[in-house]
Design goal:
The complex is a heterodimer.
Chain A: E1 7-18, E2 21-33, E3 38-42, H1 49-56, E4 64-69, E5 72-73, H2 79-89, E6 90-93, H3 105-115, H4 120-133, H5 149-161, E7 167-171, H6 179-194, E8 199-203, H7 206-209, E9 214-219, E10 222-228, H8 240-247
Parallel strand pairs in A: 3-8, 3-9, 6-7, 7-8
Antiparallel strand pairs in A: 1-2, 1-4, 4-5, 9-10
Helix pairs in contact in A: 3-4, 3-5, 5-6
Chain B: H1 2-17, H2 19-43, H3 49-57, E1 62-66, H4 72-76, E2 81-97, E3 100-108, E4 120-124, E5 134-138, H5 139-145, E6 155-156, E7 162-163, E8 166-172, E9 185-189, H6 191-197, E10 205-212, H7 219-229, E11 233-238, H8 239-246, H9 250-282, H10 284-293, H11 297-330, H12 341-367, H13 386-393, H14 398-407, H15 411-443, E12 452-457, H16 463-472, E13 476-488, E14 495-501, E15 512-515, E16 523-527, H17 528-534, E17 541-546, E18 549-559, E19 568-571, H18 578-581, E20 586-591, H19 597-607, E21 613-616, H20 620-623, H21 626-667, H22 671-712, H23 724-751
Parallel strand pairs in B: 3-9, 5-8, 14-19, 16-18
Antiparallel strand pairs in B: 1-10, 1-11, 2-3, 2-6, 2-10, 4-8, 5-9, 6-7, 12-20, 12-21, 13-14, 13-17, 13-20, 15-18, 16-19, 17-18
Helix pairs in contact in B: 1-11, 2-9, 2-11, 2-12, 2-21, 9-12, 9-15, 9-21, 11-12, 13-14, 14-22, 15-21, 15-22, 21-22, 21-23, 22-23
The chains are: A alpha/beta, B alpha+beta.
Organism (chain A): Planobispora rosea
GO cellular component, one term (chain A): plasma membrane
Keywords (chain A): ATP-binding, Nucleotide-binding, Transport
Chain lengths: ~250, ~750
């Protein structure tokens, strides 16, 4: 028997109400992500990619359609049930890192583990292992504000992975980083993926997207392209990615 | 369990980040609860020793003094009477100690203590059958005279014969108030000893106590006794008078504390709501992050209520402890009863409820924060506020216009800040008003009916000699002959003090606040307490028995009367019957401006060879001096609250406008202008709050004090509004402090490099 896909959406729709005027953000998305896949969702600003990933994590309620996580229907869950689901199954990485400013790096990383019911000792061990793996061992007691952007994003990644989620959702994880830090973070994501982690990443940077197994392109809330990326290699000149990069 | 651990980390981190504000909140709530507990203790009469004494001695509610022994059987049949104490024969004697004479009521008592109103022996022992020359003295009387067990107690009877007695014990009693508020002093001796000292029945009186089934309802028994005994009654007292005379001016203090405590609680609720709300706004992104990590709405609510509520509850717990300590320390040595559980629970539960509601409302909003951390919680933007447009119109500097605009972008926090400062400021102004009123008492004692700084009792000298000696002193401006007798009000249920001072033609300068001064025989002025007691108004004619003589008194005015709860009738000495007025019992001496009463007193004593008894008047302000301490303490608590509010407003202002700073700098504002913008944004609501609070306080303070004066019997006309310079200095100080508090973070923010990114 084949394992259930990690994420399945059926005709997923999101319509915002803007002063009484309906603004469709996502218009009938059917997406299926298998276990261990690394999917990049690409698209220009306003194409609905952030809305889509927020709906997948339950941060934003859907207007209609279905969301299935690990073979269980999730779109009908209430806000609290989604929260409980996120604790165990979903890790989030945001563009602006979103570390809790008042807490130390160690506390930030231990928080999700504690929330999911781990003992303080277990949480500490997991945190030490994660920070070690991400090269942040020395920063445990630092405040997030004392770290550089790339380091903060690595901490955020550690936090997202603290509960070994079945799905890692990354919303423009490199959007606020310079090229060197982008490379570092992407390298980490690649390593995590190689360890079997399912990842859905939103980006508008083709070079970042090229790291994924599969790129889903969104335009005006609809999937316009969905295809596997060839094995990593140097891209020939003149691809769409370069155009986007030039414009950006 | 996991959630609890995670939440505990979050709360700990957050409290660490805002340590100062958290401590301020705890301290302020502590102060308020302390004030409320202390006030309830004082108001509940737990500090009134009478309550405990009455229970311990199984006291009588009504005491009747008659010429001879009344019919006990008839008295015990009166409505509501449970038991009868006495009748006890009581003879007036004079205790002579070191040349000082003190009147004493020597009361007969058997060796076996009575079942009702038994004196409570504190030192020594009760009388024994063999104690021929022994007395048990009432303790407050003994303390005032420095008497101990075993000391001689030489008394002189009306016949002039001296009798050497010995103190065998000291006892507390709830039959009468403490000496010297209540005179004469009281001592018990065996009936045989009393017979020996005063064999003439006609020179003694009979004292009977009635213990009632319901102490609150004394009237039927009192009316019954009056009907039964009629002319034979010399005077009567009820437990209310005894209780009132033992009271330690606690009521006023209690009311003041209650007023401050309640208003402080409102201010604390505002401060807590503002702090929680402000924290929710500044932490929107962190809360959203928590939710994205898996916190539910209810858990976020619980975390916020726990954190902010815990500060309040900690304050309440500390306040309860402090309240108990304050009561113990300030009323050290008095037989006080601790606060009974009902008000204690009411205060604890009430403040806890206020704290939790104040915290829960903003926390609920915090729980509803959407879980998308990227969504910035920008303040509502839009058109310039009216105030800002006005600022623009009058061409204020740009920093001020921008600050004015910023001040009201968020309505609720702005209103909370304004009211949160206005309430403490109003209370501070009221405190200053109380202070000014006390100062006024001290500076102008004549306005509270204390024009005479000294009273001279002739003592061993003839009255005329005393008057001449007093009049001859260079610093004495006027000498008024006076006498004090008891007056029975028309229903004969209560005796009040009738004070004759000066003559109708030349009245003593009472401070008449309504109506006019008495100017003819039969005219009198009264304190508010007496008017309330009689249900009379100015202009009424009232039939009273003054010093045993029936008299129709025409009340022509109301005076400020700080003594005896205002239940005092003041009239010219020529209105009294000759037996009471000639010779005058004492003389009231009005001194020249600037004369020192102590010097004059010493001079008079020297001139008379220590024969005169010269007493200095005790200004009510001196008895109320503790109020000043209370005012200072409460002002500190209120200032803490105002400060906590300011810190919130300042933090919120910074958070809301941090993004604007970069834009402002890009537009060319200097760091100083940026700081000015931020300070204006925080300072403007502060200024508005302070001005509104000062104005509100100043407009109600005199009325409030007069209201208190009215209910306490002193009467309206004593309230003073703090002077304009005082108010200006107070308001200026607070505004200055507010701007300073706003300036420090503003300067730091203005100099910091502001990243031009979304939060």
């Amino acid at each position: 028997m084949r394992a259930d896909p990690v994420v399945t959406t059926v005709n997923l729709v999101k319509i915002y109400q803007n002063g009484g005027v309906p603004v469709p953000a996502v218009r009938g998305v059917d997406l299926r992500v298998e276990r261990g896949e690394f999917v990049a969702i690409m698209g220009p600003s306003g194409s609905g990619k952030s809305t889509l990933i927020h709906m997948l994590g339950g941060l934003d309620p859907r207007t209609s359609g279905e969301i299935w996580l690990d073979g269980k229907r999730a779109d009908t869950l209430g806000e609290s049930a989604w929260a409980l689901l996120r604790r165990k199954k979903i890790g989030f990485v945001f563009q602006f890192f979103n570390l809790v400013a008042n807490m130390t790096v160690a506390d930030n990383v231990e928080l999700p583990a504690l929330l999911a019911g781990a003992s303080p000792r277990e949480a500490r061990e997991r945190r030490e292992r994660l920070l070690d793996a991400l090269g942040l061992t020395g920063c445990a007691d630092a405040a997030p504000a004392q770290l550089a952007g790339g380091e903060q994003q690595r901490v955020a990644l550690a936090r997202a992975l603290a509960n070994r989620p079945s799905l890692l959702l990354a919303d423009e994880p490199t959007g606020n980083l310079d090229s060197r830090n982008t490379r570092d973070v992407l390298k980490l994501l690649g390593e995590v993926h190689r360890d079997g982690q399912t990842i859905i990443m939103v980006t508008h940077d083709a070079r970042v997207a090229s790291l994924a197994d599969r790129v889903v392109s969104l335009l005006d809330g609809q999937i316009v392209d969905d295809g596997a990326v060839a094995a990593p290699r140097r891209r020939p000149r003149g691809t769409a990615g370069d155009v986007v990069e030039l414009r950006g | 369990m996991g959630t609890v651990r995670a939440s505990a980390r979050w709360i700990r981190a957050d409290l660490r980040a805002r340590r100062g504000q958290a401590i301020l909140t705890v301290l302020a709530v502590t102060g308020i609860v302390t004030a409320l507990i202390t006030s309830a203790t004082l108001l509940e009469d737990g500090t009134n020793p009478w309550r405990r004494l009455f229970i311990q001695t199984k006291g009588a509610h009504v005491w009747i003094h008659t010429e001879d022994a009344p019919d006990v059987a008839a008295l015990s049949r009166l409505p509501g009477v449970e038991q009868v104490a006495g009748p006890y024969r009581t003879a007036p004697v004079t205790l002579v100690l070191d040349g000082k004479k003190s009147p004493v009521a020597l009361r007969e008592a058997t060796a076996e203590p009575p079942r009702v109103a038994a004196p409570l022996v504190r030192e020594g022992r009760w009388l024994r059958p063999a104690d021929g020359g022994g007395v048990v003295a009432e303790r407050s009387f003994a303390q005032a005279l420095g008497l101990r067990v075993g000391d001689p107690f030489p008394v002189t009877a009306l016949s002039g014969a001296s009798h050497p007695l010995v103190v065998v014990g000291l006892a507390d009693s709830s039959d009468q108030g403490f000496y010297p508020e209540w005179t004469p002093g009281l001592a018990w001796t065996l009936p045989e000893t009393l017979n020996e000292i005063e064999p003439a029945q006609g020179r003694s009186e009979s004292v009977t106590g009635l213990r009632l089934a319901d102490g609150e309802d004394t009237l039927p028994a009192v009316h019954g006794a009056v009907t039964l005994l009629d002319e034979r009654i010399q005077r009567m007292s009820t437990w209310r008078e005894v209780s009132a005379s033992m009271e330690l001016d606690n009521r006023l203090l209690g009311l003041l504390l209650a007023l401050f405590g309640t208003a402080g609680l409102v201010a604390a609720a505002l401060a807590l709501a503002n702090a929680t709300g402000g924290r929710v706004l500044t932490q929107t992104r962190d809360i959203a992050t928590l939710k994205s990590l898996g916190y539910t709405r209810g858990q976020v609510f619980a975390v916020l209520v726990t954190e902010h509520g815990a500060l309040g509850l900690l304050g309440i717990a500390l306040g309860l402890a402090c309240g108990r300590l304050v009561a113990t320390f300030t009323l050290d040595g008095l037989p006080i009863l601790p606060l009974s559980p009902v008000p204690l629970l009411a205060i604890t539960g009430g403040t806890a409820a206020v704290v939790l509601v104040a915290v829960a409302l903003p926390a609920w909003r915090g729980g509803r924060t959407p879980p998308i951390p990227a969504a910035p919680a920008a303040p509502p933007r839009g058109r310039l506020s009216r105030l800002a447009r006005l600022a623009l119109l009058v061409r204020l500097p740009p920093a001020l216009v921008l600050g004015t605009r910023d001040a009201f972008t968020r309505r609720t926090p702005a209103v909370l800040s304004v009211v949160g400062l206005a309430v403490p400021m109003m209370m501070i102004t009221i405190g200053l008003g109380c202070w000014a009123t006390l100062d006024d008492f001290l500076r102008h004692p004549e306005r509270v009916g204390q024009a005479a700084a000294l009273t001279v009792h002739p003592g061993r000298l003839p009255a005329e000699v005393a008057a001449r000696l007093a009049g001859a002193d260079p610093d004495v401006a006027a000498v008024y002959p006076g006498a004090e007798v008891s007056a029975l009000e028309p229903e004969q249920t209560r005796s009040v003090l009738a004070r004759a001072l000066g003559t109708s033609a030349e009245p003593y300068p009472f401070s008449v606040v309504e109506g006019r001064m008495f100017a003819a025989r039969g005219e009198a002025v009264a304190g508010q307490g007496l008017l309330d007691l009689l249900g009379a108004e100015i202009g009424d004619r009232v039939r009273m028995t003054v010093g045993g003589t029936p008299l129709i008194v025409h009340i022509v005015g109301r005076v400020v009367e700080p003594e005896h709860d205002g239940e005092v009738l003041s009239l010219g000495i020529d209105s009294l019957a000759a037996k009471d007025a000639v010779p005058p019992q004492f003389y009231g001496l009005v001194l020249r401006q600037g004369a020192d009463p102590a010097t004059v007193r010493a001079r008079l004593l020297a001139a008379s060879g220590e024969a005169l008894e010269v007493r200095a008047a005790v200004n009510p302000a001196e008895r109320l001096a503790v109020i000043r301490v209370v005012i200072v303490a409460l002002t500190v608590v209120l200032a803490l609250l105002a400060l906590a509010n300011l810190l919130t407003a300042s933090a919120l202002g910074l958070r809301d406008h941090a993004l604007d700073l970069a834009v402002l700098k890009a537009m060319g504002l200097t760091p100083r202008q940026v700081a000015a913008t931020l300070v204006t944004g925080t300072g403007l609501p502060a200024v508005l709050g302070v001005v509104a609070g000062t104005a509100a306080g100043a407009s109600v303070v005199a009325g409030l004090i007069d209201l208190q004066g009215h209910t306490s019997g002193v009467g309206a006309g004593i309230g003073r509004t703090p002077s304009a310079p005082t108010l200006a200095i107070a308001a200026g100080t607070v505004i200055g402090a507010a701007l300073l508090v706003a300036l420090i973070p503003a300067r730091r923010a203005a100099r910091a490099q502001v990243p031009v990114t979304a939060r």
